[in-house]
Structures are given as structure tokens and as C-alpha cells.
């Protein structure tokens, strides 16, 4: 949900459903299985996330990347960062809060 919120905010709430529908109909793909849309969404999310976390503290940025991009849970984040689980949870939580603030204040670009 956070990924979609960030992407929609960056798009300026523009969606490309009409184009995806037309493309899916031409190629007989159900919209939910459209590989191009999935790839584009992942690439767009990674670009936006990279731009968003560039000003974050290094540890928080790393925790967010591991959690949102790699899909690691708190224990895996803690193990990769060599910190305890409580600290990893705090880094991820702080990072998510900072992302919400980023998406709310920088929605014009």
C-alpha cells in the first residue's frame, strides 16, 4: 500500500489504466497479469524510492531499501545491518514516517 501511495503521489494522481486496458485487450492479457505494467511499476518505485532516501540518514535509508525493495522482515534487516531487532524496527518505522512526509511535501514533481 505504501508503494502504491508513493507512486500515485509522484504521478500527481494520474493513472494509466486506460492505456493498460487497451494494451491488455490487444494482447489478450488480463490487466492483473500484465508483465509490462508490473515491470514499469517496480522500476518507477525503485527510482522514486532512491530519490526519496538520498537525503535520509544512511542507516535508515538502508533499512528502508532492505525492507521495501528486498522484502526483508525485521529480523532479516537486523541481521543484514548487524543491529538488534528492536533497532531495525525503529529504523524501518522512522524511514516509513520520513517517506510519508516526503510523498506529502514533494508531490509536485
Features:
109 residues, globular, mainly alpha, 0% strand, 6 helices
Describe the structure.
By secondary structure, the protein is mostly helical. The protein starts with a helix and ends with a helix. It has one domain (2-105). The chain is built from six helices and no strands. The chain is 72% helix and 0% strand. It has helices at 2-10, 17-26, 35-53, 58-69, 74-81, 85-105.
Number of helices: 6
The oligomeric status of these chains comes to: single chain
Main beta-sheet annotation: none
What is the mean predicted local confidence, pLDDT?
76
- Envelope shape: globular
Distance between the first and last residues' Cα = 21 Å
Low-confidence region ranges: none
